[in-house]
Amino acid sequence: MKKYFIVHxxxxxxxxxxxxxxxxxxxxxxxxxxxxxGRLDPMAEGKLLILIGDECKKRxxxxxxxxxxxxxxxxxxxxxxxxxxxxxxxxxDVNRFSEKEISAAADFFxxxxxxxxxxxxxxxxxGKPLFHYATLNNLEEIEIPKVSVRIHKIRFCGTRSxxxxxxxxxxxxxxxxxxxxxxxxxxxxxxxxxxxxxxWGSFRNGEEKQYIIAKFKTMVSSGTxxxxxxxxxxxxxxxxxxxxxxxxxxxxxxxxxxxxxxxWKRKI
Length: 268
Known about the structure:
Pseudouridine synthase; 24% helix; alpha+beta; 2 domains; 13 strands
């Protein structure tokens, strides 16, 4: 039996939902222990590592692998999650940035960074995930922990413009892909879907306004939240931004040589 499989997690799926879809396609694994290594946010897509049988006991080793992502940053909006699955706010009018400015803003984060965990994440404090406190508006009760991560490499890949009307419809289509079980009463299980859809819908009056979306490719260490990186790039440019799309493209061990060069020693 294979030790692991790589599956494609779709936008709108949780990792657990992707795992169960995979199990259904493999009758021989119906009763086998399965787990995933390396969480992907519901609005992210791409490679998800599924461990099988005794390999599940080595999950921490697999969690520690490096990842490559392609992601887009939408400038002019921010949210409390750092991506489109959050309560969005519009910023002041965004100036047109030069490609040189955008590239420099991203390059600033290459290297080791000490970053707070996103408020809406599964990192636990006092035995409860941060999203539990955030959903109940109780973040003031705790100190949000920080994590040391390394941005091995990041490359700016260009920009595109999108009208506000098209943008809002695109975001709403993404969020609509998220399956929520109405019978699940656990805190955070509903992802505030109805409230978030209503918030994005409130921006429909800016249909003719144009927004900038910048695309990047990055290689990062385990524990790096791409939606946090997206927000930081926006802040570095003097505006706000959020992760419009995230796609994981590689999992393995990346060896950086210089600031802009390295190689994959191992790919899964």
